[in-house]
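Can't attach files on this board, so I'm pasting raw text. These are the components:
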Amino acid sequence: MAVDLTLNGKPVSLDVDPDMPLLWAIRDVAGLTGTKFSCGKALCGACVVHVDGSPVRSCVFRVRSAAGRKVTTIEGLSEDGNHPVQRAWRELNVPQCGYCQSGQIMSAAALLDSKPAPTDADIDNAMSGNLCRCGTYTRIREAIHKAAGYKS
Amino acid sequence: MSTLERISRREFLRQTGRAGGGLVFALTMTGAGRLAFADEASTPSVAPNVYVNIRDDDIVEIYCHRSEMGQGIRTCLPQVIADELDAQWDRIEVIQALGDAKYGDQNTDGSTSIRRQFDILRNAGATARALLIAAAAKTWGVPAAECITREQTVRHAASGRSARYGELVEVAAGLDVPSEVPFKDPADYRYIGHSMDIIDGFDMTTGRAHYGIDTVLPDMLYASIERSPALGGTVKSLDDKAARAIAGVVDVIELPPPTSPPVFNPLGGVAVLAGNTWAAERGREALEIQWDPGPNAVYDSTSYRKTLTESARNGGKQVLNRGDVDAAFAAAARTIEAEYYAPHLAQAPMEPPAATAVMLADGGCEVWGCTQDPQAAQGTVAGLLGIDKSKVKVHVTLLGGGFGRKSKPDFIAEAAWLARQTGKPVKVTWTREDDIRHGYLHSVSAQHVRAALDGDGNVTAWQHCTAFPSISSTFAPNITGPSAGELGLGFVDNPYAVPNMHLTIGDAQAYVRIGWLRSVCNVFHAFANCSFVDELAHAANMDPRDHLLKLLGPPRRIDPKADGAEYENYGQSIDKHPIDTGRIAAVVRKVSEMAGWGRKLPEGHGLGIAVHRSFLTTVGTVAEVSVDADGKLAVEELWTAIDAGLVVNPDRVKSQMEGAGMFGMSLALYGELTAKDGAIVQGNFDTYPILRMEDAPKSINVHIMEVDAPPGGVGEPGVPPLAPAIANAYFAATGKRIRELPLRNAGIV
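---
Top answer:
Structure tokens for the assembled complex are below.
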């Protein structure tokens, strides 16, 4: 059975079990591996993508729920990799291993869409669902403030 | 075979999600275009050694033979080579090397990449530079000594000639490569000591970075493996009817039984193979397996703790002796005694173990995996498949965190085994629960420490027993206690100026696979040492920082061998990398000054300090904690000073200290695995929490000491001081001493 949705601006028809988590539909069926698996239980945020602009944890979000909607992954966040959040991340050399950063960046981009000038408390609130085992949290806070500056 | 031979490189790149730039696998070395990737080798070039290949299009390829797991080695290793080579930073291309003994040691653990290979890397760059100078000198008919290099160009001032490195490739290819040449004057370094941006920054922020979990091959099967709850258990009966009925499931295959000792071999169990990861996992959930639980099903953390604590209390076998502790205790005005306990931990990298393998037409095996040790992966796969190690080709992807877990290639061997059984490419992806429950655990430990004080509060004797199941038990039978190597991790290298010291070890049996975790035994040894020193400060009614400096004593060099200990000094010369109490004390003074030690603190706040040398580097940490009206602890701010000798990339050192702070806080506050009936009880980030942003301090302030000394390790030494610094700060804030990790068991987190 096929699920039709818009993936990074392009209409796609995915031949999948509609109960499959969106994460695995994106990675194994659509072939976009930038969205990461880590916990499978909505506990870590490595798999965050945007559905109609809102952040969702794709590891527990059924692909059927994305039918007819716009899904954006890290690959589609910007055309050239220069979304303000991506730029700020690179300028502060935020990533260590980098694995969680797709999810971090997608959560941060969604935060700035809803709160263009977040406080530290706003950031902690929005980002505490995104785990980073390398411990880049203090740089992520700084990078979000920096990205907010680019947006304004 | 195979489908692989038929796919084009473009197709491979499309399928692996790699689109330009980014992680370049060393596919040029496959020979004869077997994988049809040979177009990467089409440019004429000269390779003066295994780390450098200079192309005639003036690109310098640098082979990174160490694994990138967040420490920044794919940036720092090229910095060293490029500096000695005088390469231009924007004209280098970093290629991830295959697993191959020709590179020397590739095992990316022990914080070794720079500290052990700095001179090797410098030599690789310097000899390549000398070769290019020789090529230019020959071309121009001028003395080599009159030529200089700058920005990837050889120049001869007298004749005004110059040539880009790429232009010299053809001539250089006909010359002998010098084996040893002088290194640059450090004053001339252009990359070493500079904070170059990370090489993989663009790929990591755009989803292009390729990790172990990201490999996709045509016709690949996705595998999920159910393993015995207890180590060494085997399948008694299997009913896979329901699993095979799940849409997408292709096959169900039993893995070979586990070995004893476990080494790096697969744990056995049953694999479900499917057309996608989700179907494999659903199929796995539908398996009905009866296990023969095996000999380790008796393991229970509650009863084991009693046994281990008793073992540490009983004193055991002597490993270091100085002076006469019995006489000192007999003469003591006071005796202070404490017991410390720290549980098993999981490395829990954000990327769980994952690998992809395919059998080749010649009977060899090719794998892609997030491994810290590709040569160990070669050996393990070869052993399991009964083929020669040279027939195992290991591509190292980026690692989504390693922390010691990915030094063990059991997951790569699983993929290889399943690839052979199915005749297809197979990707094995561990779930988070697999990672937490079936890993190589950081050792549980119990320690008993006793000190004698004279009437003035001076410490006259230190008696300390450590007991923990050894990593050696993973590799050899009948191991019942710590190895000398493990005791060199913060135990026998005790730096304190105590005239009488007696160090012993207790017996400890292993019931799970014990393995390395970032900083290894330094984690629990530093917890006991740095906590106990703080206890002694309060017993002597002294300021903890002043007492610590006093206990470190006058600047001097310590050699544990002088007191009868076996000591390896992390495999390096103790003359070049001494245990220098003067340098340790300098770190203490610096970090306490940074933190404003002695300042008036807000109500409910406390400062704690800890210093520890590990991996030839000393790190001192001060934590400021607050304790609220409900008794809950928060870490407000951290200060860290590090003496790692020469530093290649200050920003990567800083980021490692920031990360080590968070890793150390995770284990201090939350980290604990427990076993019941041989099985690990915890399973995911809900039951094995790691630090979240809301727990992170408002800032982590890092200072790198400027010391004229060879480089020490960086990836690990930041971790050990964290737990004791926090526990000491908690004591300062509340007067309550906590001697057990994690702190949340005390109800304060």
